[in-house]
Amino acid sequence: MTSFDGTRWSPDAQVHDAGSSAGPALAVFNGKLFMAFKGNQDASVWLTSTADGSTWTGHPPLPAHGTSASPALAVYNNKLYCVTRGNTDASLYWHTSTNGTTWNGPSKFAGHRSREGVSLAVFQNKLYCLHRGHLDQDLWWTAFDGTRWSGDVPLPAHRSAGGPGLIVYRDKDGTRNQLMVVHRGAGERSAAFDINTDDADELQAAEAQAAEEPAA
């Protein structure tokens, strides 16, 4: 791990004795920094946390679940969410925790499938999940309102050969938050570009349409 103080990044330091064969996920929850990661020699999803940035807890796995890709973490409505791709299938699964120790799930998304790990972000009181398609390079999104996930909605004209990144931020000249996606280009290792919006009207219209589709 490395940390940034606003000027420079610290030297790399090993986190515990943990190893991983995929990228980790981070989230701040209840005053602690949580990290979720796929095992190095197994498909388990392991979790560890730190209160001071130096000492990490042991890393128990999520119960009864494995993954073949990087997990994603986010905090929504006072719960810690972890979304993963399955280990032996391309389905998406989600888990929740109210304390970072005990977990509910996995619960399976209805009809949402991905070839890569997903990205999560909270925007306008909903938890958004963005992922690459299972059999194509299209990008898809779904939103959770605290009760149900919407049906998958394609991100028009945007394709990626890898998993996307998702974040909420406000431009220096903006007046409201934006939901930004950064992803690799389709079929070209060097091609990458981003998409952002400072207006959720398009998202809300697509979500209304998606509400008619089967969802978890």
UniProtKB/TrEMBL annotation:
Protein name from the UniProt record: Uncharacterized protein
Organism: Streptomyces inusitatus
Phylogenetic lineage: Bacteria, Bacillati, Actinomycetota, Actinomycetes, Kitasatosporales
